[in-house]
Amino acid sequence: MFGSPGSGKGTQAKLLSQCISGPHISTGDMLRGHIAEHDEIGIAAQELLKAGKLVPDDMVNALVKQRVVDADCDAGMILDGYPRTVNQARVLLELLASIGFRGIVLHLVVDYEKIVARLSGRRQCPFCGTLYSLTTSPPKVAGICDKDGTPLVTREDDRESVIRERLREYDLQTVPILNFFKEAGVPLFEIDAGSAQPDQVSRKICEELVAAGIELKVSGSQEIRA
Ligand code: AMP
Questions:
Q1: Is residue 219 part of a domain?
Q2: By alpha-carbon position, which residue is closest to atom 8 of ligand 1?
Q3: In this structure, which residue's CA is closest to atom 1 in ligand 1?
Q4: Ligand 1 center from residue 47 Cα (angstroms)
């Protein structure tokens, strides 16, 4: 599952794991788990994550290889945050072929101007952490936390220049991977994730999956097929 920062990818991956049989696997979460454990992988990955740099391909490839043979992946899995390089994509396709799975790429597409408007309109209370949105959930008094009266701030990573840089990085990283999958003949679905509520986006994703011949869990599939 691919989606730029602010596209709602994490939310959609979680919603999707309720309607297809198979876990939501996030390599970012796996790495953070190793860091929390202070194990060998965690120690090697820690500084790279802090700096926002990718960890070596061999490290994530090995993590994914070990994970996809777990019993809960027997019917498939949702990969989130992987692959991040063309090399990882190549390794993934070989891995899927070796365990008899086929891949489907879901790309959540949101207009970048909408993402910039949404994220740069966020304000946070530096004291209690409450988040406000200037468009959908503004504070009662402009610029002031409802709960404790503290002046609100814009988080560093919600500044417009930072958001635009993250989106640029995402394009640089992702376009070659999507092209690689297209050339390899992997079905690719572009889902408009910018103009609907999360549950409607999730429904669209499930409909695409059913159309691609993926079996959904009973509760989800009954609704989609009806
Ligand atoms: P995420 O939670 O997906 O944003 O990932 C957090 C961080 O984990 C990234 O900034 C990278 O440092 C690292 N990471 C996660 N997935 C990968 C991957 N597939 N390849 C390399 N580094 C990754």
A1: yes
A2: 28
A3: 28
A4: 12
**Does 5 sit in the ligand 1 pocket, CB within 6 Å?**
no
Q: CATH code at 203?
A: 3.40.50.300
- Cα-based distances in Å from 156 to 33, 128, 139, 162, 164: 25, 17, 20, 8, 13
Establish if 49 belongs to a structural domain.
yes
How far is Cα of residue 184 from the mean position of the Cα atoms in its chain?
22
Kindly give the distance from the C-alpha atom of residue 138 to the centroid of ligand 1, in angstroms, as a whole number: 32
What is the number of structural domains in the chain? 1
- pLDDT 10s digits, 40-82: 999 999 999 888 889 999 999 999 999 999 999 998 899 999 9
Beta bridge partners of 3: 108
Query: Is 132 among the domain residues?
Result: no
Residue 116 lies in a domain: no
Rounded to the nearest 10 degrees, the angle between the axes of helix 198-211 and helix 218-225 is 80
Domain assignment of residue 35, given as a range: 2-111+172-224
Catalytic position from the list 53, 155, 159, 168: 155
What is the rounded distance in angstroms from the CA atom of residue 84 to the CA atom of residue 92? Answer: 11
- The pTM assigned to this predicted structure is 0.83
Helices 198-211 and 9-19, interaxial angle, to 10°? 50
What spacing in Å lies between the alpha carbon of 10 and ligand 1's midpoint?
A: 13
